[in-house]
């Protein structure tokens, strides 16, 4: 059985490979990759039956593997290796995805391999569900004077630049103003695919989009009926996030 490890920490790579050799000698680790893009290339090259995939990696997180493969291409099984919090773990459980908490326990890996032998664990749909579930439960800390306000990522409706400040509008109608420029939030939220900078002054949560109008250069209407302008050069990219009904 061929396997690939995708993990950015060298010590974690060495440890995981050692544990695999110890408890599952039938697995041949054919490649160890430092990031998701190189892991994708290795998957296409070696066609493994199993991929051990870290979640927290620079630039791309592990769940973004769905952006590199079509639903019919993911024929391999994925076991996530993660130090994520309890909210993300619940997402994996709900999606029926398998995972190993760091530091990895050899006995847990052994049990995982036994489950693998009995049934296929991973599908494209399950990955998408887990990715969305984690987006619903992760939180970021917003500076507010001497305090930090903890906000669930998916409660963010949109963000608006206000000089050297940013207004954060939530789905419950609350608004927070923080001394961070919009560019800071664009970088922080870049790992969440639902956030889109549609204008120099706005970042929206696509999941809360209600409708789009090309009138007056382009406007996005969110679920609370707030109208957000969109730059002309961003329109095509925005519309690609939605499936359109074909004309016959």
From TrEMBL:
What SMART domains does the record tag this protein with?
LytTR (SM00850), REC (SM00448)
Where are the 4-aspartylphosphate residues found in this chain?
Answer: 54
Q: Boundaries of each HTH LytTR-type domain copy?
A: 140-244
Q: Where is the Response regulatory domain?
A: 2-117
One matching Pfam family is: Response_reg
Matching SUPFAM superfamilies: CheY-like
| PANTHER family registered for this protein in UniProt | STAGE 0 SPORULATION PROTEIN A HOMOLOG, TRANSCRIPTIONAL REGULATOR-RELATED
Q: Does the keyword DNA repair apply?
A: no
One annotated GO molecular function is: DNA binding
The keyword Transmembrane helix is annotated on this UniProt entry: no
Q: What is this protein called?
A: LytTR family DNA-binding domain-containing protein
Organism superkingdom: Bacteria
Record's keyword terms, sorted: DNA-binding, Phosphoprotein
């Amino acid at each position: 059985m061929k396997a690939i490890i995708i993990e950015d920490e060298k010590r974690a790579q060495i440890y995981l490979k050692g544990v695999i050799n110890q408890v599952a000698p039938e697995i041949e680790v054919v490649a160890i990759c430092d990031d998701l893009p190189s892991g994708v290339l290795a998957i296409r090259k070696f066609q493994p039956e199993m991929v051990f995939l870290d979640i927290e990696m620079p630039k791309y997180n592990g769940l973004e593997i769905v952006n590199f493969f079509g639903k019919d291409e993911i024929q391999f099984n994925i076991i996530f290796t993660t130090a994520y919090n309890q909210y993300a773990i619940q997402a994996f459980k709900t999606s029926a995805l398998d995972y190993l908490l760091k530091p990895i326990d050899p006995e847990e890996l052994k049990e995982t391999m036994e489950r693998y032998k009995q049934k296929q664990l991973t599908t494209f749909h399950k990955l998408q569900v887990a990715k969305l579930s984690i987006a619903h439960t992760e939180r970021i800390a917003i500076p507010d004077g001497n305090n930090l306000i903890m906000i669930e990522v998916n409660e963010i409706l949109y963000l608006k630049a206000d000089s050297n400040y940013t207004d954060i509008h939530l789905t419950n109608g609350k608004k927070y103003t923080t001394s961070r420029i919009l560019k800071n939030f664009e970088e922080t939220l870049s790992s969440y695919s639902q956030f889109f900078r549609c204008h120099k002054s706005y970042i929206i949560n696509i999941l809360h989009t209600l409708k789009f109008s090309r009138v007056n250069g382009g406007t996005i209407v969110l679920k609370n009926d707030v109208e957000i302008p969109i730059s002309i050069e961003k329109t095509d990219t925005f519309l690609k996030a939605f499936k359109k009904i074909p004309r016959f």
